[in-house]
Every structure is written in structure tokens, then in C-alpha cells.
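Structural prep section.
Before we set up the soaks we want a predicted structure of the protein with zinc ion in place, mainly to decide which crystallisation condition to try first. Input record follows.
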Amino acid sequence: MFKISSLKNAIIHIRKCTKFIITIALSAFLIIGVFTLCYKPIYSVTLNGEMIGYSENKSKLQERINKYIEEGNGQNVAFVDIEELPQYKLCLLKKNITPNDEEIFEKVISGGTQYYKYYAITVDNTEKAYVANFSEAEEVINKLKEKNSNNKDKLGVIEKYETNLVELATVEKSVTDLYEKKVVKKVASSTIGATGVNTSNKVVNLGISLVRPVSGVLTSRFGARWGRSHKGIDIGAPKGTTIVAAASGTVTYAHYGYGGGYGNHLIISHGNGVQTLYGHCTSLLVSQGAYVSQGQAIATVGNTGNSQGNHLHLEIRVNGVAQNPQNYLY
Ligand SMILES: [Zn+2]
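Run finished without errors. Recording the C-alpha cells verbatim:
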């Protein structure tokens, strides 16, 4: 009898225990259920110790910030320097708290400094034009070299990292802006010779006074000579005698060679269409494009080209028409 009652007791005990366990489990489920209904895991975000919001997707937000640091928000951004990165902390918070990733992103990047990368093209180490990338800079320089721009040997490229983006130009615009015409205009060979001869007695006013290019003996006059027109005068002088510029001006032509009979010769332009030509020289002391002052040594007397004996053939032209030098000199 005792055995039976003790068995009954045991069964009752097990039932009680089971009930208790079920009750505990149910309560736990209920509590967890209520909790998950009201709470959710979320990241609280702080920047410089200041709470700036909540994010449900920390990795997505941080990825976006990283991308911004690398690329910025525009063209030619090298990188963005952000002083402080946000700190994340996982919390369980009430469900009615809404994440504000957009606001967090704006706050984080507002403390950043964008660095722009672009290229400056320099002339004589002075920045003259700006382009977006290195290949464009190279293209500009190559085009200027192709065009034989006067500044082609002074060009350079500098890589720029700046917080302000300057106005960038296209390759074409940069080439146009930087192109410098050669100071020397090549004189077409057809204009080297005089276009006419003033055989009248009318003396054209040059507007400038001339000095004698060499001292020597007048050996041939201007005008008719051997059935042809002599477009200048000849002054005999020993080989190597210094020839000076009759007036200041720019050497617009400097030729070594036969030169259509003139031999080694120079043409100096004095402005207002007035030019002087110095022929049959031994050597030329100035180059094409040079500015010379009155009386400056420019060449030496010789016997080059169609010449018999050392002498200077001197021409004075006004708008291409040969004038009698003796109206002004000798
Ligand atoms: Zn002559």
C-alpha cells in the first residue's frame, strides 16, 4: 500500500514540476514576444562624443561614408579629409525610434574638406591654364609644340591638390590661350626682292634719319646699270669691315647662301614700311627676329652671292619700292 501511495506522490510531483516548467517557458516566450514587439536592435551613432542618430544598417552607412572619402561628390575630387569618423554602439531600443542614416551621413561629411586634383600648365613656371587630368595636359603641350608656339620650350605641368577647384579648360581652349606666335614672321621669298624701283626724282620721306652702314668708296650708283636697274648702291670696303645698322629696327630676314644674288644678307625693318638691305656679307652678326639699334654691328663686308670684289650692296625700300640711298646717305 505504501509503495502505491509513494508512486502516486511521485507522479503528482512530476506533474507539478512539468506544469511549473511549462509556465516558466510560456512566460519567457511571452516576455520575449512582448519585448520583440516593442524593442529592436539598432546602432546609436556618435560623432565627437555627440549623439547624432541611429542606424539600422551600420555597414551600409559606413560604406557610403568611405566611398565619399575616396571620391567626394564631384569631378576632380582627389579625396576628402574627414576629421572624425562616427562611432557605433549596438543597443536595444523601442521600435518607434526611426533611423536617420541620411542625416548622419550629412553631419559626418559636413566636417570634411574636399581636395581637388587637377593639372596646371605652366609657362616659365607660372601657372597659365588648368585641365582635368595629366593626359590632357600632355596633349596641350604636344599641340603647342606641333604649332611651334614661341613658348614651347618653357612649358611645364604641375599636379595640383587644392581645396578650391579652379575653372578647368578644355584642351582646345588651353592651346588657343597659350599659343604664342613666333616673334619672327617668315618673309616669303617673293618679298625679299624689291617690288619696284623709284626711278623718279621724287624723294620719299623715310621719317627716320640714317647713319652710314660702312665707311668706304661708292663704287656703283643706284638706277640703270648694264641695261638693268641697280636697286641699291655699292660701297667698296675691305673684307671683314664691320657693317652697322643704318637705323634701329627688327631683323626680318637673315639669309646665308646665294640668296638670289645677294649672298649672305640681312633685311632690317624700321617701321612704316621702311626697310634696309645689306648684301654680299661675309658673316651676319645678328639673327632673324633680333632687334637692333642704330649703329649696332650687324654684319661684315664680303663678296658672297653675285658679286665681284668685296663691297656692301645697300638697298633702302619703302613699302617694297627701292629708293635711291644717295637721297639719304653717301
Ligand atoms: Zn649692288
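Observations: The chain has three domains: 37-110, 116-178, 189-327.
Flagged for discussion at group meeting.
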